[in-house]
Amino acid sequence: MTQPDVHSAPVCMTRRTFAIISHPDAGKTTLTEKLLLFGGAIREAGAVKGKKARRHATSDWMEIEKQRGISVTSTVLQFDYLGCRVNILDTPGHEDFSEDTYRTLAAADSAVMLIDAAKGVEPQTIKLFEVCRMRGIPIFTFINKLDRQGKDPLELLEEIERVLGIRSCPMNWPIGMGPDFQGIYHRHEGRFERFTSRTDDMVSIAMPDLDDPAVATILGESLHQRLQEDVLLLDVAGDPFDPDLVALGKLTPVYFGSAIANFGVESFLRSFLELAPPPGPRETDQGVVRPEDERFSGFVFKIQANMNPAHRDRVAFVRICSGRFERGMSVQHVRTGKRIALSQPQQFFGQERETVDEAYAGDIIGIFDPGNFRIGDTLCERGSFRFPPLPLFSPEHFARVSVPNALKYKQFHKGVAQLSEEGAIQVFRQANRTEDMILGAVGQLQFEVFQHRMRVEYGVDVELLRLPYAYARWVETELPIDELQFDRYASLVVKDQDDRAVMLFQTEFAINWMLERNAGLTLHTTSYGLS
Ligand code: GDP
User: Fold this and answer.
1) Which of 10, 183, 259, 430 could form a disulfide with 30 if both were Cys (CB 3.0 to 4.6 A apart)?
2) How confident is the model over 156-177, as pLDDT tens digits?
3) Structural domains of the chain sorted by starting position, each given as residue range(s) with its CATH number in brackets
């Protein structure tokens, strides 16, 4: 296997920046932890704080997390392995915070889709997969929990292709499953890796010819026969491995393993580092920016408040897209036209934060943010180009927000503005009721966090009145909105935080009703690409 030549290639070519997408409980925390162990970023299992460990978090607004035992924060983890610098964009597992995950995917160059072998493709996987498809990034699949009885592997492949509409190419193939799990056969290497839950015990046996009777002595007659049949079927009827299709996100390489037993994880990581793309060129409103360009550029994809409960700080996470970042450098903040010094830049090794002196395209840096940044902001060393705006996704819950104490209006507006800049909540306004705000959330819990943070951080008690809408659609039309036909009882015209026209609907029926009656009208499920 060839590893990137770190000595001659630009530094950014050694970067692999990806996110793991999965449904809660598929094993993301477990897999992340094993990956970090390989990278030496943590020394022992249990160091990655999953939902259970985070119960002991001390930050007060994380009370909600404690009560619910779930994680609402996400982290960037980094380690070096085989000459690569690996940046894992960790994402919250709880579905209420999936919008955060969506934005994180904008900073990733590829995704690892983690699937529980017993459950197959689950709802949250589908949602996140759709975002990866929208971005056109390569997707690698890890089918987890082979140490337990799950669905038939061929059935799982069929499900991936049918439900997600992506072709698949197994890079290895499981032999047995659950109590009969023997290990995996690496198809392209002609090698068998025997299942063991002890990492220091890795047994790899060359099997260049599956028809060799010696294989039967190793696997037993029936598993040997099954393997021969399966591999023949994959060779004849399956998709061949095609790196171009992988790069386009049309074919997913599939790996089987068991994260908890740390089995198949290292061979997955090696293959992934070889096949996953380094940072690529990115579009801006003034042409393409290349990772190897000398000048630094990047964009804010996430803002996290209260990283450190002792100082109510706000950290803006910047994905570097080109050039070299140096500590103390000043950059153009394109939205405001100001030059700013990037203070206290930080990187994240495992659970540790460290001050960063230099970083390259593909890397993520955290910048202390006194309130300057918004999700999607471009920062660049020279010029004034912008990366495309990050999409807003249709919330599924809506509430009218009010503040009973009129003396608190100022703090109220400040809080709402900051929390919407952070992407913690979406804010909509009606044309004739500008003082009134409607909040949109992807999940219910977002409202609770909003109320809690308004009280604790801004000293304002807010009241929320739930509204019956369940869909937001960004409107694209040639006619003025008030000339469109719509059902006034089941829908509402509003504007989003950037003054784009949006309609809220109670039912899908109301959406279709409107589309049928208005020729030339398009209703988008995200704000993507709409300015
Ligand atoms: P997350 O919600 O996706 O982060 O999932 P976790 O990593 O917290 O795992 C969910 C549950 O699945 C935990 O009880 C894990 O111990 C278990 N789990 C994770 N990987 C495996 C695996 O390979 N095999 C088995 N049997 N259980 C696993």
Assistant:
1) 259
2) 999 999 999 999 999 999 999 9
3) 11-275 (3.40.50.300), 282-380 (3.40.50.300), 397-524 (3.30.70.3280)
Contact (CB, 8 A) for 3 and 273? yes
pTM: 0.85
Distance 30 CA to ligand 1 centre (A): 6
| Amino acid sitting at position 263 | F
- Six-digit token pair at 96? 């209420």
| Among 350, 348, 340, 335, CA closest to 385 | 335
Tell me the best of 73, 146, 260, 265 to mutate to test the pocket of ligand 1, counting ligand atoms within 8 Å of each CB and taking the most: 260
Any ligand 1 atom below 6 A from CB of 26: yes
Tell whether ligand 1 has an atom less than 6 A from the beta carbon of residue 128.
Answer: no
Give 275: exposed, middle or buried? Use CB within 10 Å, 0-12, 13-18, 19+: middle
Residue 380 in tokens? 């660049």
Do the beta carbons of residue 94 and residue 25 sit within 8 Å?
no
| CB of 264 closer than 6 angstroms to any ligand 1 atom | no
- Tokens matching residue 156: 């799982």
Q: How many CB atoms lie within 10 A of CB 339?
A: 9
C-alpha 122/C-alpha 133 separation (Å) is: 16
The tens digit of pLDDT for each residue in 40-99 reads 765 554 445 444 433 333 333 444 444 433 333 446 788 889 999 999 987 665 555 556
Our measurement of the distance from residue 247's CA atom to the centroid of its chain's CA atoms, rounded to an integer in Å, reads: 18
Confidence of residue 350 (pLDDT cuts 50, 70, 90): very low
Residues in the chain: 531
Check: CB of residue 366 under 8 Å from CB of residue 316. Answer: yes
Task: Give the Å distance between the CA of 259 and the centre of ligand 1.
Answer: 7
Query: Is the Cβ atom of 306 under 6 angstroms away from ligand 1?
Result: no
62 CA to centre of ligand 1 in angstroms: 23
Ligand 1 centroid–CA 261 distance in Å is 10
Q: Would the CB of 147 count as within 6 Å of ligand 1? A: yes
